[in-house]
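User: Can you help me understand a structure? I only have the sequence.
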Amino acid sequence: MAQVPQTFFDALAVRTWCGLALEALGRAREEIDAINVYPVADGDTGTNLYLTVESAVAAVEAVFAGHAVGLAEAGKPALADAVRAMAHGALIGAQGNSGTILAQLLRGMAQVLAADGETPHTDGPGLRLALRHAADSAREAVAHPVEGTVLSVASAAADAADGTEGDCGAVARAAYEGARTALAATPGQLAVLGRAGVVDAGGRGLVAVLGALVETFTGEVPGAVAVSAGHARVRRGGTEPWAAHGDSGGGEAGESRSQAHSQAYGADPLHALGADALQAPGADALHTRVDGDTAVTPDALADDCAPGEGGPAFEVIYLLEAEDAAVSRLRSRLDALGDSLVVVGGDGLWNVHVHVDDAGAAVEAGVEAGRPYRIRITHFGAGDVHTTGAERPPRERVQRAVVAVVPGEGLAGLYTEAGATTVLARPGEPPASGELLDAVRRAHAREVVLLPNDADLRHTAAAAAEQARAEGIRVALIPTRSAVQGIAALAVHEPERRFDEDVVSMTSAAGATRYAEVAVAERQSWTMAGICQAGDVLGLVDGDVAVIGTDVTTTAESVLDRMLQAGGELVTLVIGDEAPESVAAHLEARVRESYLAVDTVVYRGGRQGALLLIGVE
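Assistant: Let's start by predicting it. Here is the structure, written out as C-alpha cells:
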C-alpha cells in the first residue's frame, strides 16, 4: 500500500516511520545477517535490528490504541508521547550491540523531539537537531567507539543533515545520502571489513532505517545499497562469490546461538552465573533468563578484535533499573571486566551489553547497581572465533515442551516448576515475536505447545510459531487469553500422549476456563460498564469491563460472583504484589460460604500488572 508523505514530523509520522523501518529491515534482514563479520561472524545483526524495531513499533501502536479509546484526545497522540514510546520500546526490546546502539539513536532523537511536550510537530531544523543529538548520544554510550561501524554512519548522517536547509523530506534525504556514503567507506576504516570485502552490517541496517525516514516524508523508496566491496558474501566458515549486490540469500548465515548455548551447558545453563552471583545481595529479586537469543554482532563497538585473535567467552545483556550514579560506577566496573561495553537508556531504566569471561561477575555488578532483569547470557561455544577447544556433542532434543508467556515473576516460577519454558511479559512490555521464537528454540524440543496467555499476543505468537515451523519444529498454538487459562492447559498436559491428543486436551481445558482480572484504570475511558475515571478499580470478565468500583476487594467479589453464577468447580486466584493483603482470604471465604463444592487455589503472581487474576473452571 502506498504511503501518504508526511509534511511535518508528528506522531503519525513517527508511526509511519517505524512501520516502514520494520518492513525495510524485514526485506534486508538476511542480507545484513550474511555480511556480519565484526568482531564475530555470527550472522544475526539484521535479525537483532529487526527485533529491536519490532518492539518499538509495538510500543508506538500501543500509544495510538490508548488514545483511540480515550475521551479527551481521541485519535492521535502528541509527538512527545509517540517518540517516547518509540524510544522506550526499542530500549526494552534491544537485541545485541546493533539493536542496543539503534535504541540509543532513537532515544537521542526522542530527547530532542519531546523536549517541549506540547509541540504537535517539528520541522526540518528540528529533525536536524534530533539526528545530531542521536549520533552524539550513541557515541557517548559506547565505552570504546570504533570507526567504520554504525557510529561512523550515524555521525555522517547527522553531518550531512547539518548542512541542509529545507523541510523534513530534504533533511531526511540528506541524512540518508550521507549515511550511504559513509557506509561505503567502512571497509577502508575497519581492517576486518576490508579483508572480507563487505560493509559494516550495523551501518547497513541504519541506512535501511534512514531510507524508511525518507519514504515517510517523500513517499519515495531509496534505491538499493551495495553491501560488498569485493563481491564476496560472508558466511560462517568463510566467503563465497556473490551473485549480485541485491542477493538476499544467506539463510545459513543466521545459525541459532541458542543451539550453541545449549550445547555448551546442557540442561542446566544457570551455572554460568556462578554460585556467588546467584547468592549476591538482592539476587532473589531477579527474574533471571539465561538463553541464547542475542548473539554478538559485527558492529560490536569495542576495540578492534579481528576473527581469530581471541576474546571474552560470554555476552551478557540485561535491562537494569538503577540511578544515574550507580550506572556510572557500573560502567567502570564492567569496562574493567571485558569489552564491547554499551550502556544505553536513562530515567531509571538502562540496557546493558558487555562481553566478558566472568558472566557471574557482570550480573553481580548489575545487582549491586540496581535491579537487573531479562538477563540473557550467550556463550561463544566451542568452534567460535573467540574460543578454542573440542566441539561438544549436540544435546539431544526432547520430544515435547510447553512455552508460555507469563505476566509476573511468581507465575514464571509456577510455570517453570510445571516444566514449561517461560517468557516474562512485564507490565507495558509485551514480548516480540523474536523473543517467543527464541524461547521455542531454547525449549530444544521436536514438538512445542505455545501458550501466549494474552489475546493481544495472538498474532505475535502466530508469527513466532510460523518461523519455528519453518525451522522444522512442530508447533501448536493454543490461543490462551489469560495466564489462568494457561494454568488450566498446563494442568492436563501429558507429554507421553500423541501430540494431537495432548493439544486437544490442553485446548479444551483452556477453553473451559473463564477468566477475569481486577486492575486500576489509567485514564478516563468509555467501557462496556459505563465511563470510568483514572484511578477507578475495573473488573474485567473475559476481556470486557463488567464492574467499575472504588474498592479492590469489593470489586473482586462482584466479579467472582458474576463468574460463579454460571457454575464452576475450581476457582484460581493469582494475586499481584500491589493487591491488598486481605483480598485472597476474603475471596476464599466468600467461595467457601456461598458456593458449595467449589474449590479455591491461590498463587502469588508478583509484579504482574493486574492486581488480581481470576479463573473459574
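Now, to help you interpret it: The longest helix spans residues 45-69. The two ends are 45 Å apart (CA to CA). Let me know which part you'd like to focus on.
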